[in-house]
Amino acid sequence: MPSASPFHANAFLIRTAAAGLTILACIGAALILYTLRASELRGDEVTYANAARALADALAGRAADTATTFATVIERGWFMPGMAALCAPLFVIAPDAPNWALALYVAGVNAALFAAFVWQVSPLVGARAALTFGLFPLLAPLWMVSAFSVLPDLPAGLLLANAMVLAWRIGTALLAGRAPRWTWIAGFELCCIAALYVRGPMLLTGLGLHCILLALAGLRFRLMSRPMAGLALFAAALAPWSLAASDHFGAGVLTTTNFPLVIADGFGDPDRLCEGPCAPGLDILPAWEYAQARAAETGVHPFTQERAMMAASLEELTVRGYLSQVREHFGRFVFNPAGWLRFKLELSFAVPPQWRGPLAFLALSVTLIGYIPFMAALMALQIVPVRASDSLSLQAILIKGMTFCLFLQPFLHKSSARYWVGFAALGTWSAIVFWQALRAREALPEHTKAARAMPAWLDAVQIAYGAVFAALALAIALA
Questions:
Q1: Mapping DSSP to helix (H, G, I), strand (E, B) and coil, where does residue 39 land?
Q2: Cα 164 → chain centroid
Q3: Quick one: DSSP state of residue 338?
Q4: Nearest alpha-carbon partner for 78 in 310, 256, 262
């Protein structure tokens, strides 16, 4: 009897490994759901859940009027409405759904977005490489906890990852001198728009991806029409929200309204923010309440008052002081992946207090097995230029561009451990790029390699970007 071919044996091993990873992930998800079944919602999660219920009531005909629904969804204007829209279907069906059901529903959405990403990327990187996304982030307990949280960071990051795969397809077609398929353009824009509506700062990533694609299309001007049409669609999709929010607040709003206060909170002098220290309270809420009160007294618009408060708090900020604050933000943003888990465990009644510390330590230890090497790969890719092939160069440029956009947050906002989950998959993708680039360099002698369509100036951009990234990292470390 003939033995099984290497191809079939390899396919069997891949299917077996994928099944094993899926089973482990399901077991982990069940354990996390059990520990979080009695958890309370707190902070931003409460706002998103309330907005989702209001939107669901309007969709099901249970709301009193549209104006009240919109006021609940937009609230202070700090958040985009996408997370409310994402969660609303659950409350349409079950208006009194408990928190554990909401957590399970959100986890299901995140699982679907992650599965779509792996399904999209597998044919492009290969099944064996795609399995690494099962090792990290899927088997990282801290990432899994975030998947059950009613927060926009993970779904927005997964939507971005899906958009990046489609951008890779579009960019590959542009480099080959072909017009990209309209289905790719439509899917790409849908992912970018959804990510933006889920989380406002994703405007930067959407613009960044469009800039990369327009730069590639500019190599052959006749190919500009479809990327330009996509950019017009992206801008048009944001317009309804911007116009409605601007009308609601009586002032211009692009995405959200809290930018002056988060800048002041992240980098300003807290003793000057409210013409002295603000009252005790959660996050920027006391500053917002003070701005509302002062605006009512003086007759100025609250947004004007917030900008004045920001200016006063930043008046004595130096470059060194700013970079020092950025370093603190990065410390929580990248180097403290367990911070969010500790917060969740404090709200959990299913885990006895004496077990919360050991559980957090165990979850962090298992997470770091994947977190350290794959995040190191992401950091290394920012510095090392990849030129083994057009495909790998394009992947590297996309990952660098999106990391740059996502890593602007510590420069503009206080950051915490809840945000790293949004770019975790980029670490694994970076490792795949390095591995495939090494194989490509070893496979063929230099003189036999195919000619590249990637222009030399984009290779130069990679080198310049790496130098700037390294210099900035050093400046922040020494501030």
A1: coil
A2: 12
A3: T
A4: 256
